[in-house]
Structures are given as C-alpha cells and as structure tokens.
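Running this now, will post back.
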Amino acid sequence: MLNKEVKKNKSNLRKEMMEYGRNKRQQNRSQTPINEDKNSDRKEQVKKSKSPLMERLSMGQKAKVEEKEMFALTKKNYENIPEVKKKKNQEEIIKQKQQFMKERQNKLKELDDKIKEKMKKP
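Update: finished.
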C-alpha cells in the first residue's frame, strides 16, 4: 500500500513537472515576437555577402591551382613529414662530423709537418 502511494506521488510529480515545462515554453514563445522581416533581411545579406570561396564550394568546383603551386605545396608537405625531418637531421649531423674530421686531419698534418721540420733541423 505504501508502494502504491509512493508511485502515485512520483507520477503526480512528473505530471506537474511536465506541465510546468510546457507553461514555461509557452510563456517564452509569447514573450519573443517573431519578425519575419528581420530574418528575411538577414538571409538576403548573407546571399549578397557570399565570398568567392563559399560560392565555389556551393557549386562543387575544385580550386584552380597552377602546376608550380602544386609542386611547391607538395614539396612543403613532404618536408614536414616527421620521417623526412629526422633523415635530414641525421644527414646534417653526419656532415658536421665529416667536417670536424677533415679539420682534425688537417691540424694533425700541420702538427706532423712541424714535428718533421724540428727533427730535420738539429
């Protein structure tokens, strides 16, 4: 019996909440006047201010890109790939090491020549 009363209270509560929500929506609708003139003006403004991009997209046309631009864009995108960046970085490191080794060999040759000259003089 207690369960039936609880269920009735819950259902009454739900009904009241639903009615309250309906009443609120009706009040909001009645408070906000609908101006069709403003909406139509906005639509016309949007139609007039369409950008070339939006017009092209609405027609389903592809962008016109020159061949040089395509190659440049492809090259730029390729250079931004992480694997390619890593490879370039490694190549630079190898070049730096080679440069260092060449400089070191030149210094060693110079020192070796100096030592040989000292050995010949006495």
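DSSP finds five helices and no strands in the chain. More later if anyone needs it.
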